[in-house]
Amino acid sequence: MSPNLRLVIVLHNHQPIGNFDGVFETAYEDSYRPFLDVFEQYTGLPIALHTSGSLMEWLAARHPEYLDRLAALVAAGRLEIVGGAYYEAILPMIPACDRVGQISRYAEWLADRFSTPVQGMWIPERVWEQSLTTDLVRAGVKYTLLDDFHFKNAGLAADELHGYYITEDDGNVLAVFPGSERLRYTIPFREPHETIEYLRPIAEQQPGAVVVFGDDGEKFGSWPGTKEHVYDRGWLRRFFDALIDNRSWLSVLTPSEALEQVPPLGKVYIPEGSYREMTEWALPVERLKQFIHVKHHWEHEGRWHEIAPYVRGGYWRNFKVKYPETNEMYSRMQMVSRRLQELTRSKDICQQATNGNGLARHDHRCDHAPTGHAIDSSPLLDQARTELYRGQCNCGYWHGAFGGAYLPHLRNAVFQHLIAADNLLDAAQGRGLAEGDRTWVELTSDDYNFDARPEVRLASNRLVALVAPSHGGHLYELDVRTICHNLLATLTRREEAYHDAVRGGERESASDVASIHDRVVFKQKDLDQRLQFDRHRRKSLIDHFYDPNVSAEAVANDRYDECGDFVVAPYEARLRRNPDRMQLQLTRGGNVAGRPVRITKGLTLEAGGHSLEIAYLLEGLPPGEPIHFGIEFNFAGLPAGCDDRYFLDSNRKSLGHLGSRLDLESVDYLGLVDEWLGIDVQLSSDRPMNLWTFPIETVSQSEAGFELVHQSVVVEPHWVIRAGQDGRWCTTLTLNLDTTLAERRQPLLEASLGAT
User: Which residues contact 185 (CB under 8 A, 6 or more apart)?
Assistant: First the structure.
């Protein structure tokens, strides 16, 4: 007799690119391995498993025995391997060629390692747009799964979601399973009998129904409180026992088995979206606060269920608006992807021409190659593609109940791999950092961040600087290519909806085992007193005018008046090019305390150099009157509170760790050293300067609770100027980025190619 209900269980295990090795290991010990220890004992329960490529590569290197156990389960017909984007990219965020490339490359890796065809894929964060159907089918995908929330947004009722549907785009057909949100909240947070009680009426009312549970495997041991709950107190065994005890009417099967046994319920076209919580997090903060208020009101009235099916949150792509820092990563990723596509096409065209002439050459010059450089047909382009794919890992590109964009190590990892990919593309053209490669410098302008206004790129084989003339002339990215590090991967402090909970001091009982979406836990005391929001983005070359008597504390705590109008105002840009020396000149006429003042600032980079020369000229200053002028720099990826990360004076004497608040007078030098990263940042001036330093810290939310996170350090040289009769004042700063320490530890070529 056929079972009345079929249950499909799909687990998703993932650790992001850039996460700490200890986090991987803890997740393995707390979740991945113990789950397998229990599951292997229940021979009659097949499940499906998706493991992201970043985690799979770590497991292959650190715990190959775990992969052998998975392979044995696959061979026994107990486990279906589910594919996905290799490094868990949000699919609508990356170019179509990269979508197909990531999915197909990972499917090939999985099929080879586990000797099984890969038919389905996990959609990262369930971020869906209908046009993805074509790319998934092109990559060989037969099915995927989304949340039931997606299907409800398409107009389907809850009782129409016990099966799977066919969707279509441009003639390409794909099967899509709706995952149950109800099960996401009962498994494993409620006792197993509650899941059985939920499924039984469905089986009775809709014989032959298919219900899908698809969610994070980390819920089984890694989420707070779940290790003790799931394993020590035996929840997982009780759950599996309940499934077996009810097998007279309930069968457990894999997605591919469901496709074979059950016809589709019909066809549906699915609106863009994600899981419910993600769409809420994508809303602008004030709209999200309003949404939370309205939702709580209708829940209190007992009527939320009536309108919930018709309520949708925000659009995932607007995370790039809500957090402009994620747009910086996105636009940098697009630059690398486009360049890789161009070089790959050039290589293919050149290879066809070479083959047509009957020649066999490893290295050749081609008119199609950008800037006329040789295109190396070695594996460098394939290595660059891998680094690009790693730089597309999604976790640093958004924020919700997880650290996401607020975690510096995830943002740093994105840039690390994108810069490494760029280095490899240069190496493929013979202009990298390897011995024998020529030094070079270039100055270009384009709409690099997709805001319909031109930005400027000043680049050499050692540095890349990106400047936004239309936004205060800010230096918004500074890549140190020898160590693949962006010193301006900063984050601006801004209001979040969950800050209301921080101010309210709500706390969760330590005995509760709850979804991370429902937890309110404080990892540090007095976080409500650390809430502070920035009036401008934390970048570099930000031009300030202050009251002459303003204090360091007032500036650090945002208790000052801005006396000028230069901070975010547009500058005019001029590009000055010489063969071995490039200069960007930025000019703006504005006002300081109601008086017209003109600023000209220039950035100069030489071929092969690792220094930026920064010159300032102020004109129109009132003679003899004190004008307080400051140039704000922010440096990211240099953690505070560590003995091996510190400030240095001109005598190379330590001034404290990089979270120290300094108020220095009449100095001409400040160093910032990160021994672990292997960089010595040296800021010097041709005239004495006063210096402020202070940390930028955010109060943000992660899986474990609310926490204080160091984002960057402000270094601000400032002067109280008394101009002469000509009303002019000038200074030249030098920002030298010395990576000798890193280069001694690791051969320069390996560093330039992004070896990790």
Answer: 515
pLDDT one-digit tens code per residue, 421-441: 999 999 998 887 776 678 899
Q: What are 15-49's pLDDT values in tens digits?
A: 999 999 999 999 999 999 999 999 999 999 999 99
Q: Is 439 left (phi over 0), alpha (psi -120 to 50) or beta?
A: beta
Look up the pTM and report it: 0.93
Are 13 and 53 within 8 A, CB to CB? no
Q: CA distances (Å), 637 to each of 349, 411, 419, 644, 710, in order?
A: 40, 9, 15, 13, 9
Residue 373's pLDDT is: 42
What residues have CB less than 8 Å from 455, skipping those under 6 apart? Answer: 445, 446, 447, 448, 449, 466, 467, 468, 469, 470
pLDDT tens-digit series, residues 374-413: 444 478 999 999 999 999 999 999 999 888 999 999 999 9
Dihedral sign, CA of 583, 587, 592, 595? positive
Spot the catalytic one: 29, 57, 168, 216: 216
Q: Is the pLDDT of residue 354 over 60?
A: no
Specify whether 216 is catalytic.
Answer: yes
Encoded tokens for 183: 């099960």
Cα separation, 226 vs 235, whole angstroms: 9
- 80 is a catalytic site residue: no
Among the listed residues 30, 98, 125, 707, the single catalytic one is 125
What element of type H or E holds 186?
helix 181-186
Q: Are 316 and 274 in contact (CB under 8 A)?
A: yes
pLDDT at residue 286 is higher than 80? yes
Helix (H) or strand (E) holding 144: strand 143-147
Q: In terms of Cα–Cα distance, which of 448, 463, 429 is closest to 340?
A: 429
446 touches 469 (CB < 8 A): no
